[in-house]
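Q: what sequence does this backbone want?
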């Protein structure tokens, strides 16, 4: 128990949530072994500190520690970065060069965003994990290295396996010991602890009194879904510290910094499940098609209901629900001036060609997949103030793919 507090202090980890303590505990237990560890958790949950905890508690602690962000290295050079290359092995290879696996001999390599590795690199990685052997690009000489591998991913690797983008055998090899970092929204009072820590840190950094939250604001903090987790909480605390001249922050002020706060009518957990489902580009398209299909089915049901109602002015309860699902922003589909007397939550039929045309237009609109994709990308970028990393995560695509799409669609920011 005392150890745990020491580790938290030493590595600047804030929080007492059970799931977090368990993750630290597993990291420390597994540290002295040479087992591979896979750290999973949503973006911004604090995965990056764990490989350092493991390395510094291992017998390799005096050896090298190299962190590699697999998502940030272009596909064409990743093999050479990891395993090195020989002079002349490709255009521009004017010298031979050691790769990280050679340099980190006797130490630890942290492969961040491991699910981004190309399949051909995954084969090389599996080999070095199983036998300690690797070959530089452009060489035929087998070399040996002794490296402990810790990997992290903020996407669901099993979904990547299902889509043929990640080797199952490599997954099992990496995932010998899984460490799961809980999402911020699960951590209850820790959210407030983290806020206070960040508020004090920024107060020091900017030489001003720390911001404080009133009870209402604290409740908002606990109820929000925190899609960007600790990173988002930290950013928002910094923004408020700088922008607001008032040091006592109330619920309304806090809400204005939380993207989508008003939009979240459903419990946060349900929203996250949806987000997670976007674990690949293809899945986004599937999801769009699936949503369109269920919208179509809903519309069919609605039309059927309309025909059945035969002039009766009231929708069935099921249809009212359907309308709400189809038009979450009811104003868009049903202009207010057409139903002035309708009490909230109780729709009346809207007859006449105009409304039917409206519906057709909506269906037409969503038929343009590219358009929809563009719109989603724009929305995600807007939501995260142009931060591509977070937008990419929200969309369930890699940063690289996002860059490509931004270019392809000429999306301006
Ligand atoms: N428990 C914590 N205590 C203090 N600071 C934390 C904690 N967890 C995360 N942070 C801070 O939050 C930020 C995000 O953490 P980190 O970079 O480790 O996220 P991540 O899980 O690697 O996210 P991604 O998957 O997007 O790379 C960092 O500034 C980190 O210092
Ligand atoms: Mg990270």
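A:
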């Amino acid at each position: 128990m005392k150890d745990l507090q020491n580790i938290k202090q030493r590595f600047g980890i804030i929080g007492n949530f059970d799931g977090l303590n368990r993750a630290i505990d597993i990291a420390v237990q597994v540290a002295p072994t040479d087992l591979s560890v896979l750290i999973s958790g949503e973006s911004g949950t604090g995965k990056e500190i764990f490989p350092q905890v493991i390395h510094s508690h291992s017998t390799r602690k005096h050896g090298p520690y190299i962190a590699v962000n697999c998502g940030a290295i272009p596909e064409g050079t990743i093999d050479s970065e990891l395993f090195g290359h020989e002079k002349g092995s490709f255009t521009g290879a004017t010298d031979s060069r050691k790769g990280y696996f050679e340099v980190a001999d006797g130490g630890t390599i942290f492969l961040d965003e491991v699910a981004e590795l190309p399949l051909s690199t995954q084969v090389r990685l599996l080999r070095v994990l199983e036998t300690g052997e690797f070959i530089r690009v452009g060489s035929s000489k087998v070399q040996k290295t002794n490296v402990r591998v810790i990997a992290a991913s903020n996407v669901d690797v099993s979904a990547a396996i299902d889509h043929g983008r990640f080797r199952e055998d490599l997954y099992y090899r990496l995932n010998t010991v899984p460490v799961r970092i809980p999402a911020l929204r699960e951590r209850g009072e820790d959210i407030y602890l983290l806020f206070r820590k960040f508020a004090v840190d920024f107060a020091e950094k900017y030489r001003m009194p720390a911001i404080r939250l009133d009870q209402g604001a604290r409740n908002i903090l606990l109820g929000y879904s925190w899609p960007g987790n600790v990173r988002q909480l930290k950013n928002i605390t910094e923004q408020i510290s700088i922008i607001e001249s008032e040091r006592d922050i109330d619920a309304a002020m806090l809400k204005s910094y939380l993207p989508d706060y008003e939009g979240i009518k459903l419990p946060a957990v349900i929203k996250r499940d949806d987000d997670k489902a976007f674990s690949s580009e293809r899945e986004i398209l599937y999801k769009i098609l699936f949503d369109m299909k269920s919208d179509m089915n809903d519309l069919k049901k609605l039309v059927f209901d309309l025909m059945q109602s035969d002039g009766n002015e009231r929708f069935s309860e099921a249809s009212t629900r359907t309308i709400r699902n189809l038009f979450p922003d009811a104003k868009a589909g049903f202009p207010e001036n057409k139903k002035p007397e309708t009490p909230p939550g109780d729709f009346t039929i809207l007859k006449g060609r105009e409304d039917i045309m409206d519906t057709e237009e909506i269906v037409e609109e969503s038929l343009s997949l590219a358009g929809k994709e563009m719109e989603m990308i724009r929305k995600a970028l807007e939501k995260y103030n142009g931060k591509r990393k977070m937008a990419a995560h929200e969309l369930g695509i890699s940063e690289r793919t996002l860059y490509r799409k931004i270019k392809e669609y000429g999306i301006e920011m």
